[in-house]
Specification:
Blueprint (H helix, E strand, L loop, with lengths): L2 H13 L11 E5 L8 E2 L5 E2 L1 H12 L4 E5 L5 H6 L5 E7 L2 H4 L2 E3 L8 E6 L15 E5 L3 H9 L4 E5 L2 H9 L5 E5 H9 L7 E4 L6 H4 L3 E6 L4 H14 L2 H9 L8
Parallel strand pairs: 1-4, 1-5, 8-9, 8-10
Antiparallel strand pairs: 2-3, 5-12, 6-12, 7-10, 7-11
Helix pairs in contact: 1-2, 2-10
Pfam family, one: SBP_bac_3
Main location: other
Keywords: Plasmid, Signal
Amino acid sequence: MSFKKTLLATVACAMTFIGGAAAADTLRIGVEGAYPPFSMKEADGTLSGFDIDIALALCAQLERECELVEQEWDGMIPALQARKYDAIVASMSITEDRKKQVDFTAKYYDTPSRFIAREGAEFDMTVEGTNGVKIGVLRGTTLQCHVEKAFPDADLRLYNTQEDVFADLVAGRLDMQLNNTLQAIDGFLNTPQGEGFAFLGENVDDPECLGEGTGIAVRKGDPLAGELTAAIEAIRADGTYAAINDKYFDVDIYGK
């Protein structure tokens, strides 16, 4: 049995746990489904990816039924506040600005971000040097914050999905794009679509915008944040996290 099927089976067992998971105990998780390898749609329409497996593992750890709710990125926090779901597991960076709207668990991974452009492209990465340069990022992300702050005169293009960012980069409608390095490698550079493209410059260093790692968001004051933090620690300790990590990545993405 595959690791993913084992996780699903574990969650199914939790659903029938004696004295446990009734309908009211369903944990509704907001996910995106368009950010490979963290979340993506398989040919049969099922969701997969690192975030998806982590969500299922946390539900299993808490012995609660897991309901995955798809949501476009820029509506993630509003939908959480509107109680469309109980938590967000969608590679959301922990930032001071977001902490004003939601509570976060401890991080469950921490990876850098970096620009991508055509191989051989040269840009002066200053305010003056990026004047009018077409830069694409996912709407409502920490990456948007960084570009707006560091390159205010750039021609910033905002997208609802990372797949659309890459499509416009390939089509020449963008000069460069910025996103998570691991997602960029596995979701673009190591695919036929990414042929002829490469990283531009070094990892972006901007904790004010990019935050302090990736966490799970819940509504303000919800004790679920503490429960999920304990569950993250538990799956780190029992090897479940490592098994999921190694399924998608060659390095430990948890960070220091």
